[in-house]
UniProtKB/TrEMBL annotation:
One of its GO terms (molecular function) is metal ion binding. Residues 1-20 form the signal peptide. It comes from Hymenobacter taeanensis. This is M28 family peptidase. Residues 320-526 form the Peptidase M28 domain. It holds the Pfam family Peptidase_M28. Gene3D superfamilies: Zn peptidases (3.40.630.10).
Length: 573
């Protein structure tokens, strides 16, 4: 689960820090409201004899979120316990290992514990500025070296730091940033709300995500990149940046040991940014307005920056867990179910408890994964296509396990029909809604809608697409390589208690339990909603597994061309 906003959440999928990227939200929301008005209030949930039960789901959560598993952090004894448990459960179900004969896929990671210099120095037009670590800026590096430093690196303001040909947008046009440090705004140009036709309007695109901005700056040859933190477009406060970018962080091992990355990546507060612009004799508000219009030209600031980071490095393999139910007719075509097994491990004690158990986040998703696997093994006839069950590592560290799988797939991507992802399922009982994060992206919406109808549920988009939840869970790495991906769960409308109750419950979870030791298994949970969601996603996969066609991305999706290329389709002239 990715970082959350502290603002009120409209649904449980938001509870995670997942994703967004909806199209046609207004019409979809109207339909959802209409359906909600007539949705039955009955809380009785029919449980077909398919092997998916609240008892099984609860038992798996109870084990995976127990203190014995030490919070399931990669590189710890908790990882060994969690991955062994999952592999053993897959074996008990009679599922086959991956193509290399193993239930594990090694994921090479490096743990970088970075210690930035206590201050960041800026010199240039007049009096030098000193910014303080954590208070004013955060700095880190993905380079696998003992130390990195920027010394008198020229500063350039490059708007949003976006190069998006399909939107006719290039913040780096005519700009040479080699060896320089770029300052960019968070989110993307459509988010400001000045023009709803710009990008996807308020719904964040991938160009608005911090990971894209670091990637693009590196492609441009920049030595450093600082993202301006503004709470509203970032969707989380500065305290989240402080906690997320300090201490030991896991990164993918790369052949060049991170040399292709910017030497320094980081964030700077809005207040510090305004002081920076004032020192450069630039008007922040005017340049912000200019950056939200086409034709923006990057602005050299006439200042230089100096900062450094000292690193401690530790390299090891973590593990994805993989199991397969071979298809009966088209075994070389695959549907993937994914969930991340990792959480935060042992950390600072809160109320005397230092084990961050991660029961909702994401023992719940793993429990659903195992339950769906059981359901497939109990079918009278095996599905025509193969079903892959993938429990990935390092989601909490930046979607690392799914990213590694997408770059090193065990099964061909052009034969992978879809990914169905589960992350932080609701423990508040049966739901009326099915919230699809990224509704409008792919044909999988139609499969989800049909499965929801079977359960007398209505389908709706996430209500906060401007916060970019679509880009914050493991399905996104499958989307990036073109595989249609579904991330959906009951998130907003309790069948027994309505929407306000769910909003209250999710606010309470975020305030008191999200990424805290108190995210523990609770025997008083009503797990019928998890059972309901697991059965719905099972039905989606069952239908996909017995078809001969491949779902695609909707026209206008940024992933459609990638899928077309993967499937050998020639791009249209």
């Amino acid at each position: 689960m990715r970082v959350l906003s502290t603002a009120a959440l409209a649904g449980p999928a938001l509870l995670l820090g997942l994703l967004a990227g909806c199209q046609g939200n207004s019409s979809t929301t109207t339909t959802a409201s209409s359906n909600a008005a007539t949705a039955p209030s009955d809380t009785t949930i029919t449980s077909p004899p398919d092997g998916i039960t609240t008892a099984d789901i609860g038992n798996h959560i109870k084990v995976l979120a127990s203190d014995e598993f030490q919070g399931r952090k990669p590189f710890t004894a908790g990882e060994e316990k969690a991955t062994t448990y999952l592999a053993d459960e897959f074996k008990k179900l009679g599922l086959k290992p991956g193509p290399d004969g193993s239930y594990f896929q090694n994921v090479p990671l490096v743990e970088i514990t970075g210690t930035p210099s206590s201050t960041m120095q800026v010199t240039g037009k007049g009096q030098p500025l000193t910014f303080n670590y954590k208070t004013d800026f955060m700095a880190f590096t993905e380079r696998e070296v003992p130390s990195v430093a920027l010394k008198n690196s020229e500063l350039v303001f490059a708007g949003y730091g976006v190069v998006a040909p399909e939107y006719g947008w290039n913040d780096y046009a005519g700009l040479d940033v080699k060896g320089k440090t770029v300052v960019v705004l968070v989110n993307d140009p459509g988010n400001a709300g000045n023009d709803t036709t710009m990008f996807k309007g308020k719904a964040m695109t991938y160009y608005g995500r911090w990971m894209y901005k670091y990637e693009e700056a590196a492609r441009q040859g920049a030595a450093g990149l600082l993202i301006v933190h503004d709470t509203k477009p970032a969707a989380y406060p500065w305290s989240v940046v402080q906690s997320s970018y300090s201490g030991a962080k896991l990164r993918p091992q790369t052949t060049d040991k991170g040399a292709s990355k910017c030497a320094i990546e980081g964030w700077i507060t809005l207040d510090a940014t305004k002081k920076l612009f004032q020192a450069a004799n630039l008007n922040y508000d005017q340049l912000y307005a200019a950056a939200n219009k086409k034709g923006f030209k990057a602005q050299p600031m006439g200042l230089t920056l100096s900062v450094s980071v000292e690193n401690k490095l530790r390299r090891r393999n973590s593990k994805n867990v993989v199991a397969v139910l071979p298809g009966a007719a088209r075994a070389n075509e695959y549907i993937i179910y994914s969930a991340h097994w990792d959480h935060l491990g042992i950390g600072p004690a809160i109320n005397g408890d230092s084990i961050y158990n991660g029961a909702v986040d994401n023992a719940s998703g793993c429990a659903a994964l195992l339950s769906i696997a059981k359901a497939f093994t109990q079918l009278p006839q095996p599905p025509a296509r193969s079903i892959v069950f993938l429990a990935v590592t390092g989601e909490e560290q930046g979607l690392l396990g799914s990213g590694y799988y997408a770059a090193h797939p065990l099964f061909p991507l052009n034969k992978t029909v879809a990914d169905i992802n589960m992350d932080a399922l609701s423990s508040f009982g049966p739901m009326r809604d099915l919230t699809v994060v990224g509704l409008g992206q792919s044909d999988l919406d139609d499969y989800a809608r049909e499965a929801a109808k079977e359960q007398d549920r209505y389908i709706q988009p996430d209500a906060q697409s401007e916060k970019g939840f679509y880009y914050r869970s493991d399905h996104f790495n499958f989307a990036k390589v073109g595989v249609p991906s579904l991330y959906a769960s009951g998130a907003a409308d309790s069948r027994a208690k309505g929407k306000e109750y769910i909003t209250q419950q999710h606010n309470e979870f975020e305030e008191k339990h999200y990424h805290q030791p108190s995210d523990e298994y609770n025997p008083n949970w009503d797990l019928r909603g998890m059972e309901q969601d697991a059965r719905l996603l099972f039905r989606v996969g069952q239908r996909l597994a017995n078809e001969t066609t491949f779902p695609n991305w909707k026209p206008g999706s940024e992933f459609r061309a990638i899928r077309g290329k993967s499937m050998g389709q020639k791009p249209k002239a």
